[in-house]
Structure formats: C-alpha cells, structure tokens
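Entry 14. Ran structure prediction on the chain below.
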Amino acid sequence: HVSPRSTEASPSSAKKRPAAFSGTQVDGVFQLYEQGNLRITRDIVQIVDYFLSAIGEETLTQSIERLQAHIRNQLTAPAEAQALALLEQYLDYKRQLVLLERDLPQLPSLDALKQREMAVQALRARLFSSEAHQAFFAAEESYNLFTLERLAIQRDDSLDANAKGAALDRLRDGLPEELQASVLPQLHSELRSQTSALQAAGGSAAQVQALRQQLVGNQAASRLQALDQQRQNWKQRLERFQQAKSAIENHSGLTSADKQAAIQRLMQEQFDERERLRPVSYATL
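Output, structure tokens:
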C-alpha cells in the first residue's frame, strides 16, 4: 500500500519552494503495511535526498523542516512517527559520514577504496536496522563491491586476458539478476571509450579482444567478436554487390531497362527479403 494522502504540495507551499524543485515532483512515495506501519523501501532515501537537494538555496534547517512537513502531510500514526525517526537516523548518518570521510586517507589506491567502502558499510550497519540497511543501501553496496573486485581483477598482473575474462564472468554471474543488468551500461561505456582510444593508437584486433575480455569478461567479449564478424561479412557482401552492380551499369551493350532488370536479379540472388529491407542495404544497393 502507498501513502493514502496526496503527493502534491499545497498551492501556498508551492510558492515558497526553492528553484531547484521547479517543474519537479517529490522523488518517491511512502508505502505502508496493512496495519498502517511504514514499509521500509528505497523510496524513503529518495524522498529525503530530494528535499536535501535544495540545501544552498535554503539552509539545512529549512530543508529539514520542509521534509518534516511533507512527512506529516503524507502520513498518519504510526507511520508518521516511524518516518520522522528514520529521518533523524539518516541525518545522523550523513553527519557521521562527513566525519568518517575526513578521517580516512585520501589515496587513489585500490586498498584505500576498499577501506572506505568497508568503513561506510560498518557505519550504516551500526546506525540502521538490518531491514533499513538492506532497503536503503544493498544495491549500492553490491555495485561498489563488484566495481572494487573488478578493478582488482583488471590490475592483477598474474592473470592473462583470458583468465581475467573468466574471473569477470564468475564475478558478474554472482550478482543478483537485477544488478547484472544495471552494471552493463557502465561496463559498455568504459569499453567504448577505451576501445576507441586503443584503435586510435593503432591497436590490433587481438588487442581489442583482450581489452574486451578484461573489461566485460569472456562471454561478452565472444559475443562482441561474433558481432564484429557478422558486420565484416555484411560489409564484404555489400562491397561485392556494389562491384557487380557497377559492372552492370557500365556495360555498354545493355539498355537502361536491361541494366535495371539485371540489378534487380542481382539483388534477389545475393540478398534475402529481410536483408533488402535493412536501412544500410537500402542506402547502398
């Protein structure tokens, strides 16, 4: 069940809203159990962060008061008190996180990154119930640990490209299914960037494949290699067709109608109906 009250701000409060909120709605809704207790979901963090995003345009105190008013407008007992208590826990977490960051070594090493992640997770476990810790941060923590393990594999000089790819496959297969999908955009963004740089520097096809193995694993690298081969085969077929088409067009013994008929026969011989509908073939044929 979602919160029973409207998520829209009242006209009077809307006039006072910071410019950061212009054209936006509160990011998330409160959800309740049948008995009226607050359901702990990731939406709660999104709602809090939405209101805190106005800090700078208004003071922290004003943002908190605005958020508290939103909670009271949305919820009744017992969920209202539960949400307000969670807000205090979250604000305490934010304050302690600043102190933790200040005391940790600011080094760009993998060990320092791991130390920070473990310290942050320990802080969350200390301040929140296991239910809130899981709902608020589980996906983020799984993603961060995956990223750190992936970096460790990539930097392991004792592994060749194939071994790194296999290790990455095992690492990704161990993720929850929804998280497996969420890491793909970042992985492929890195792959595109690094592949372009490698190719610009004159990297070979073998070097590109090794890079793929180290960034996205053997399974994905094999799929990309197969896709490369399909594209290359298609390109070669188009080039052969274009050569045969040019020969027909330049044949002095054929009329225009004969040439057109010969080109149509050539298209039907070399491409099936689906291929003739492909935009790239239509532009080239």
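The first strand starts at residue 31 and ends at 32. Will compare against last week's run tomorrow.
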